[in-house]
Amino acid sequence: MMGKTLAYKILEEHLIEGELAVGEEIAVKVDQTLTQDSTGTMAYLQLEAINPKEVATDLSVAYIDHNTLQAGFENADDHAFIASAAAKYGIVFSKPGGGICHQVHLECFGKPGTILIGSDSHTPTGGGLGALAIGAGGLDVAVGMAKGKYYLTVPKVYEIRLTGSLPDMVNAKDVILEVLKRLTVKGGVGYIMEYTGDGVENLSVTDRATICNMGAELGATTSVFPSDKITEAFLEKQGRKGDYRELKADEDAVYDDSITINMSELVPMAAKPNSPDNVEKVSDEKIKVDQVAIGSCTNSSYTDMMKVAEILKGNKVHPDVSLVISPGSANILRQLSENGALASMISAGARVLESACGPCIGMGQAPKSSGVSLRTFNRNFKGRSGTKDAKVYLVSPETAAVSAITGYLTDPTIWDAPDVSEPETYGKTEHYFVYPKPIEERPREVVMGPNIKPFPIKEELKDKIDKKVIFKTGDNITTDDIVPSNAKLLPYRSNIPYLSSFAFTTLIDDFKDRAERNGGGIIVGGENYGQGSSREHASLVPLYLGIEAVIAKSFARIHRSNLINSGILPLVFKDLKDYDLIEEGDEISILDLLSNIGYKDEFNIIIKNKSIEIPVKLIVSKREAEVLRAGGYLNASK
Fold it and tell me: Does the active-site annotation cover 559?
């Protein structure tokens, strides 16, 4: 009998429905959930529509970390709504300033061997602790909270075998950048990335979390490390030794694919504009820098912050550079203030921001026109920074800090490595958490401000679609393209009608007008359509505008699920060459949907104005077919 991977061991422990075989849909028990305020408002509106007595998970946490800039009433109203939903359903509420959801969850709540789903695509950060942590759409998380289960298609498992140890001034960020360089942003689609090998023991939990966090950019379902003595020591320092359990793959575990990375041979890397897989050695580039931003859920740990502080100590930020730093949690910020590291940052000329996502989600700190920004973040999609023509590079904290001093993208190995070690204890900063009261003392109403609008719900599926193609895209269209994310739009995450005016505006100016003129329509996409964030707004806005189907070469995992949850058909070209046959303005007819969906994996669509039929695929589970027939997951759940 073949040995088991760690991923399959955890899935097997949690299996509720289905067969644990690649390509099969299963339901698993959900131990924990997390939400954040960008996607959380919609998730709690959906939970309110389901209206359970309380959550069915062991733990659910609502974090406020994205929309923390309260320039108007909208964000504050959303926060009040989320707080009231948390109080009603028995959810821990993490107040603004408490920290970035993934970093705080790693410190305070994450457990080895659990299944965590979160309405944020970087939820896999929890894999650094040996959890199976999966990003999902808000409706999937709402159902997970209400019913304690989550449906997914069983992925393959990709082994990434690590050997050696990181050289001085080379960061775990450089490990995942190397993986992205080799495998690309599509390389993890359909896989769980599982890290093995002797090199694992040379990485801290937060190093591992950095790697798992940015594994989302591979398109992977999630990433996971074993839980070992390093994990135990981390949990003990966080005052949670009782949460530890040892977990690892069997020695003879069989993987579907594998690569080996010798960390001893790695050098500092940078992902160049505008994709996380556009990776080169830092030493190959000589670029003047305008802005440096350090933080995000990728690189905001205590150790990363201390490395930055030590590099800045006694130095000064280059006169032409703006350096901003966002510690990952209030607890880390407290430690930096107590041990003098904060003074080193400030004395060097850094701007210290609150513990929140901030610039990473486009909430402030947009670079100047055509500016070069080095960021320790996970995404550098065009326009995500808030400046369309900015040139954003993704780098490690070491590279960022040294470059902030020199004024140029600089290989940090020219610098003496800082001597940084973990503290004996991380201590606790508890007062940003609001814990739920006993069920009999909880409020039964939620608070909704005027900016919170009902989310669109589709009618039951009809047998025929006759619509025009109103937009044709290229490859790797991101959810930032479909629904832009910036400081001006983030306050309207609970207002789909308002957001609809900005659909696809990174690419075209008139998508809403096209949809309204044609009574909705069909979108045609290329490879990896919908990559990036888990935000279901990228399906809810098209639903609101009457989009019936998206026909693409391939879909990103979470976005495909979100389209199905919204009742929009995610159709895939059987022959990729047929993509070239369809043009904007073509009239598409899709017949016999009720007798095809769930019964046939392939059927034809008709390009009426060209008298052409082309085959498309819609491979769905029995449950997904029922969801599409019902007009979406919420309808089907009811």
Answer: no
Gyration radius from the chain CA atoms: 23
Q: Which of 14, 493, 535, 559 is catalytic?
A: 535
Catalytic residue status for 533: yes
Q: Is 65 a catalytic residue?
A: yes
Q: How far is CA 307 from CA 302, 344, 417, 424, in A?
A: 9, 11, 8, 17
66 is catalytic: yes
Q: 177, 140, 429: which is closest to 298 by C-alpha?
A: 177
CA-to-CA distance for 223 and 214, rounded, in angstroms? 9
Q: Among the options 121, 300, 403, 533, which is catalytic?
A: 533
Across the strands, what pairs with 227?
Answer: 247
Phi-psi region of 403 (alpha: psi -120 to 50; beta: other; left: phi over 0): alpha
Question: Phi and psi (nearest 5°) for 630?
Answer: -75, -15
Give the whole-angstrom CA distance, residue 99 versus residue 101. Answer: 6
Instruction: Single out the catalytic residue among 31, 37, 65, 78.
Output: 65
Distances, alpha carbon 368 to alpha carbons 54, 235, 321, 390, in Å: 47, 41, 11, 7
Question: CA 263, 266, 267, 270 torsion: positive or negative?
Answer: negative
Q: Which of 79, 122, 375, 379 is catalytic?
A: 379
State the residue for tokens 């069983």: 154
* Residue range 434-469, pLDDT digits in tens: 999 999 999 999 999 999 998 898 999 999 999 999
**Catalytic residue chosen out of the listed positions 31, 38, 66, 301:** 66
**Do the strands 612-617 and 351-352 form a parallel or antiparallel pair, or are they unpaired?**
unpaired
What's the chain's length in residues? 638
Q: Is the dihedral of CA 349, 359, 420, 396 positive or negative?
A: negative
Q: pLDDT tens, 368-420?
A: 999 999 999 999 998 899 899 999 999 999 999 999 999 999 999 999 999 99
Residue 352 burial class via C-beta count within 10 angstroms: exposed 0-12, middle 13-18, buried 19 and up: middle
At 364, list the tokens. Answer: 């402030």
Burial class for 311, CB neighbours closer than 10 Å (0-12, 13-18, 19+):
buried
Q: How far apart are the C-alpha atoms of 129 and 114, rounded to whole Å?
A: 10
Query: Has 389 been annotated as catalytic?
Result: no
Which residue, 110, 140, 190, is CA-closest to 27? 140
Instruction: Give the residue among 1, 72, 46 at the shortest CA–CA distance from 540.
Output: 46
Catalytic residue, chosen from 37, 77, 120, 243, is 120
Judge contact between 106 and 212, C-beta under 8 A. no
